[in-house]
Design brief:
By secondary structure, this protein is of the alpha+beta class. It has nine helices and ten strands. The protein has helices at 11-20, 74-77, 80-88, 109-118, 173-176, 209-222, 228-243, 251-263, 268-281, and strands spanning 25-29, 33-34, 91-94, 101-106, 123-126, 131-136, 142-146, 149-152, 158-159, 169-170. The strands form two sheets. Strands 4, 5, 6, 7, 8 and 10 form a six-stranded mixed sheet that branches. The protein has a four-stranded antiparallel sheet with strand order 2-1-3-9. Strand 5 and strand 6 (131-136) form a beta hairpin. The termini are far apart.
Length: 286
């Protein structure tokens, strides 16, 4: 398979054709990068879309925010704002996940050899340094899942390099498992537990109320599928609001919370910061 010597320069017709087939498209500048955010979206003024952490399309009329700008709407693609981008675009890109596809980006000969030996053959497209293998089915995108192997699907874009050759097959579990990583080792941390108030007995020391609360908090953190930082902070805040003033919390209880948070990918520093911020928000000594 050979790389075409001249990718089509009629980017707008290509984009419209792809969009008509259900492929969300966007223009790319030289260097395979998206167009910069418009003034209305610069410096996060639009409320967060430049971070591209949410799965919805961009509401801005300009081709902002990378993959989130990709669309199949011909009125948007041919709008005056987008027309200016097409005139200077270097190539057309598409959002694979938005089309229900996954692109396995194989960046050198060794990666291609691994794919041929390990994965079901599917449609392939030549790239500058290797090949894109296209599978039916969307999944989480990830970089460097193996040496010279990236996965482009949801919340990611890929260059349009032509239709490729071969029959596209269903996304195999072998590719899905490439993004599953071993849990990181949990680092021990020093946690400040609020001191018990002087006088009076803690109402939780002789009941299962505290243990149930900690178990529920651990479950809430473990079940988080997105916004893990915010979930950890809100959980710490809820635990401290209930148990932080009576002195019933121990290092063992809070270590369970920190362990659950670190198992979800939070660093020891993020855990400590979230705990300290929750103490401060409740007016407890930090």
């Amino acid at each position: 398979m050979t790389q075409p010597t001249d990718i089509r320069r009629e980017h707008l017709p290509t984009a419209l054709s792809l969009a008509a087939s259900g492929m969300p498209v966007l223009p790319l500048r030289a260097g395979k990068v998206p167009f910069g955010n418009c003034p209305a979206c610069a410096r996060n003024a639009c409320g967060g879309r430049p971070n591209m952490k949410t799965a919805g399309p961009c509401a801005c009329p300009a081709p902002c925010h990378g993959w989130a700008a990709a669309t199949t709407d011909p009125d948007v693609i041919t709008s005056p704002t987008w027309a200016r981008a097409w005139r200077t675009a270097a190539t057309v890109a598409y959002h694979p996940g938005g089309a229900g596809l996954t692109v396995l980006d194989l960046d050198n000969a060794e990666a291609i050899a691994w794919a041929r030996a390990s994965l079901p053959t599917t449609r392939s497209v030549s790239t500058t340094r290797g090949e894109h293998w296209l599978y039916r089915g969307a999944m989480q995108s990830a970089n460097a899942v193996r040496p010279a192997v990236d996965i482009k699907s949801t919340m990611q874009y890929a260059r349009w390099l032509g239709p490729g050759i071969g029959r596209m097959v269903a996304l195999p579990d072998t590719v899905r498992t490439l993004v599953v990583r071993e849990p990181a080792a949990v680092r021990p941390v020093t946690i400040r537990v609020p001191a018990a108030p002087r006088g009076g007995a803690c109402p939780h020391r002789t009941s299962t109320y505290l243990d149930r609360g900690i178990a529920m908090a651990v479950q809430r953190i473990t079940a988080a599928r997105e916004a893990v930082h915010a979930t950890v902070y809100r959980t710490f805040l809820a635990v401290l609001s209930t148990h932080g003033r009576c002195g019933c919390l121990t290092d063992t209880h809070t270590a369970r919370l920190f362990t659950a948070a670190q198992a979800k990918g939070e660093s020891a520093r993020h855990c400590t910061d979230a705990w300290t911020n929750a103490l401060t928000a409740l007016g407890l000594p930090a």
